[in-house]
Amino acid sequence: MGHDATADDMAEFTLRKAAELVGKSKSTIFRAIKTGRLSATKTETGDFAIQAAELFRVYKPLKGAASVSGTAQRSTQRQMGHDATANATAETPVETAVRMAELETELRVLRELLDELKRQRDDYKTERDSWRDRAEHLLTFERPTKEQAPQSDVIRSESMADIMRRMKERQAQKSA
Fold first, then answer.
1. Number of C-beta neighbours around residue 20 at 10 A
2. Which residues touch 77 (CB under 8 Å, ≥6 apart)?
3. How far is 110 from 101, CA to CA, in rounded Å?
4. 141 inside domain
5. Which of 7, 11, 32, 48 is surrounded by the fewest CB atoms within 10 Å?
6. Nearest to 7 by CA among 56, 75, 82, 60
7. Is 91 contained in some domain?
8. Beta-carbon contacts of residue 148 (< 8 Å; ≥ 6 apart)
9. pTM score, whole prediction
10. How does pLDDT run along the chain (176 residues), one tens digit per residue?
């Protein structure tokens, strides 16, 4: 695959062909489109065009399904190289389209997972930086000495010392 796939390169199926490939009725495929379970575009003639990746994301293809349309075959040949028909092996165009749809879905899921992991990483970095800032603040925090402390704190701590001293004196007097 030497280039990025564009909308023209993607295999597209009509409602009838899509139904054949997945073993469903046209009305089932139509209902899936109408409910939003399956996305499709309308052509100029009013028909639906369903991309292979989207069809096979929602429905599993039938084993031994009929070969895909000429457009899909050309798309598959472009993606595999022009000599795809000469090098045809056990993989049919339908199997190739299915495999591509699976790979596209897997790639999309992996990209979403990567984006989520990047968001988590950024959250962890922010949290780490916040904790680092707190730790640095605590490490550089100096308690004020008695000279630096406000006068009321000094009085309060002296008063507390006096109270403790008096309590010890009273206990000593009671035990004597």
1. 18
2. 84, 85
3. 14
4. no
5. 7
6. 75
7. yes
8. none
9. 0.39
10. 344 444 444 688 999 999 998 999 999 999 999 999 999 999 999 999 999 888 888 988 887 554 444 444 445 445 445 444 444 456 788 788 888 888 888 898 899 999 999 999 999 999 999 999 888 888 887 776 666 655 555 455 567 778 888 889 988 888 87
Q: Examine residue 20 and state whether it is found in any structural domain, yes or no.
A: yes
Question: Into how many domains does the chain fold?
Answer: 2
Q: 68, 123, 128, 122: which is closest to 99 by C-alpha?
A: 68
> Among 73, 104, 135, which residue terminates a domain?
104
Say if residue 157 is in the same domain as residue 88.
no
Question: Side-chain half-sphere of 87: how many Cα atoms within 13 Å?
Answer: 7
| Helical pair 93-140 and 70-80, crossing angle rounded to 10 deg | 60
Which residues constitute the domain of residue 169? 149-176
Same structural domain, 77 and 16: yes
